[in-house]
Specification:
Chain lengths: 340, 314
Amino acid sequence: MRDRHFGKIAVLAVAMVMVLSCVGSVSFAKAPLRVAMVAAGGLGDRSFYDSGHAGLVRAQKELGVVTKVLECKDDPSLYYDQLLAAAQNYDLVFIVPGYQMDKEIQELAPQFPNVTFVYIDGTIDVPGVVSVDYAEHEGSFLAGALAAMMTTRSGIKGIDPKTKVIGMVGGMDIPVIRNFLAGYKQGAAAVDPSVKVEVLYAGTFSDPAKGKELTFALHDKGADIVYQVAAKTGEGVLFASKEAGHYAIGVDSDQCYIVPNNIVGSMMKRVDNSVYQTIKHAVEGTLKKGAVYHYGIKENGVGLCFCETMQKVVPKDVIEKLKSLEEQIRSGKIKVQEAS
Amino acid sequence: MLGNFLSLALVRASIRMATPLTLAALGGTVTMQAGILNIALEGMMLAAAFFAVAASHFFANAWLGLLAGVVAATLIGLLYAFFVVDLKGDTFVIGIALNIFAAGGTVYLLRSMFGVKGAFVSDRIRTLPDISIGLANVSGPIAEVLDGYSILTYVSWALVLAFSILFYRTAFGLRLRAAGEHPVALETVGVSTRRMRYLAYLGSGILCGLGGAHLSLGYLNQFAENMVAGRGFIALAATIFGQGRPLPVFLACVLFGAADSVAIRFQSLGIPPQFALMTPYVVTTLALWLVSRPRAPRVKEATAHMSTKEADAA
């Protein structure tokens, strides 16, 4: 009985795959480029995913491509199906962030040779897959320098110049977050080697209450400035800074507007720029399969926001110094190491 | 090192983290006394967290927010009661369904009402106040540990006391417990088991409503998708650990809250975060293992009684 059922199901599955893949491979040369973004999490993080979405929206307006966002809402069981759906119906598929779906990409990419997969935030060794790699350590270097300069500063409300401690809340202890930390530490050390960096991990990217508690714990250790690298968990970091009257550094998008009086800046990962650029390359026909694009400070892929809020809170000479550090990284004079 | 580790801040963090757990676990306690395991604590809290923020935003008033949260959780509680008590649905299946319903429903409403995804924040959201209980002038560690929490923290403490009295010192409490332990006896003295169970769900809804509203209005001032993040299930574990008695349940919540804040501080001691973050779950599992050994769960007994009663009625 069981075997017969299995046979039926198998035949059905194969038939379905065949039908679906036929549908998927039909392409119209003159139709606009169809672009999908598969998000491991969901839109509304006011950070990483929203930035990627902004790039799509811009491309839709300026380049006339068709776009679609497929969210997995942090449910790994959806990764495969959403990626499959994207591959079947779109020409260019962004995977945001790629490292969440390594296994799925390895399986699906070879099956869809006509689809260009773009691996956002890292590199992958699968033939044909385009990788977009950010130098988050370079941007975090500036965040670390900013925090170190601010924490030893006297005369700023909410900052005790005697405690030379800065903090960071990470979402999870994973390679990309360690890269943020590595840059943050190097930046702090470049300004003042005696500044100590304390880091705590939440183990989740979606629990703001936990982010808040972690931040309070860092405040207890004397950290007046806490860098959040934790998506929605990080919103708790921003609120905790506001409540305790200390300062935070935002991440990925410009988050200064969320707690304008208690934020010294945001380290932006310009997912929007890179998504837009990649689509532009694809439309112009210059996108090379299997290419790796690096987005560091030099390529305007990462960097501090230098927004109005930041200018209001941070003294002028600190801003000057940060701009000079940024210039030195751009010119290659300062080399920021990745996490080992 | 140790002095630094066992700081006042740690105690305060434990109390802060225990508050939403205590409120929800008291909600679980009320139904447990009536012989029902409430699986939907998580969903009730989530719905309350959402509607508390929504109403606080619309009316720019924290108290109306709190009320809306409580009402939302209570409605879910009554729905739960209807399915379980009247339609004789399986409490686990209905409870899980309601949790999923709350998770999906709040996300849907977040998008349709406020047009945002992920999280909702606005300047109009008013938060519940932190209050001083008059210890500000008293110096010393006791005052530092006990003063200046969100108002619902103190409410939760008062409720622990109130429910201890209600369950064991009043006629109502006796009837509620009878609905759980011996429904037939309760029916013989002319009290409706159905009514007692509905009241239990109602009380559970109110308490989870307070817990959820505390999370979104008392602790954070925003709603984020799935922001309860498993606290409803930790509260359920506390309910079972405390075997449905208010004081042990409260102590279990403080224990779990402490495990959470200790986990945070373990990281600073150089323990890898992956292991440090396991602490609350390891403590919860150990706690449940400890209590599950000696005695058979009461809930099963109660269901057995219920089915005999139903058989009689049929």
